[in-house]
Amino acid sequence: MIAAKRRRGRPSLDEHEQRQRLTDAAWRVFEEASEERVTVADIVREAGMSSRSFYQHYSSKEDLIAQMVEDVGAKILAAVEADFREPLADAVAQTTRALGTFLERLPSVAIDLTRLEGTIGGRVVRVRQRVVRALTEVVHGHLARLHEGGRVARRPERAEVEVLIAGIAELGIRYYSEGRRAELLQLQPALVQLLIRGLT
């Protein structure tokens, strides 16, 4: 009996695994050097992949960054939605927990999202807008339920919620892009008070 021929090299990764390996490598590389100094060659070297593999998935480093922003946005939204699915007796505690989740889910690696231009910059802006709209719906719905249950005095207009959420998100992006994440986390109590006073 002839033994089956053994395949050489590493087992092939599926498309999702390849993309994940590249984004994971990019986060690691961005921790070591500022984003503008990092090249595609740096990322593929860290990932143990080829440039050809990179360009099968992304058109540029900026395209990869936009995907990273989408991934972070989706994780933030899922985590905040989970916070509001588990109601707390105290509206302030609930808001504090959800805002903490939002701020803490911003990555520790600073990437200047404000300098991305063209199609990629527009894609990042659309992700930010989508996350703000979704968070607005979650917070507005939560406050409506609290009002119906007699736990808050009034039900704010959706526009009020959106203005505050958009402002906090924009502040978060600015601090994050400037590498000031620690300062942003220290602002959490003041931001909670702003939300509570503005919305209840």
What's this entry about, in short?
With 200 residues, the chain is mainly α. The protein contains 9 helices and no strands. Helix 4 packs antiparallel against helix 5 and helix 7 runs antiparallel to helix 9.
Describe, in plain words, how this protein is organized in 3D.
The protein is mainly alpha-helical and 200 residues long. It has two domains: 13-58, Arc Repressor Mutant, subunit A, CATH 1.10.10; 60-199, Tetracycline Repressor, domain 2 (Orthogonal Bundle). 70% of the residues lie in helices and 0% in strands. It has nine helices and no strands. The protein has helices at residues 15-32, 40-47, 51-57, 61-85, 91-104, 118-148, 158-177, 181-186, 188-199. Helix 1 crosses helix 2 (40-47). It is elongated and about 60 Å long.
Helix-strand blueprint:
Blueprint: H1 15-32, H2 40-47, H3 51-57, H4 61-85, H5 91-104, H6 118-148, H7 158-177, H8 181-186, H9 188-199
Helix pairs in contact: 1-2, 4-5, 4-6, 5-9, 6-7, 7-9
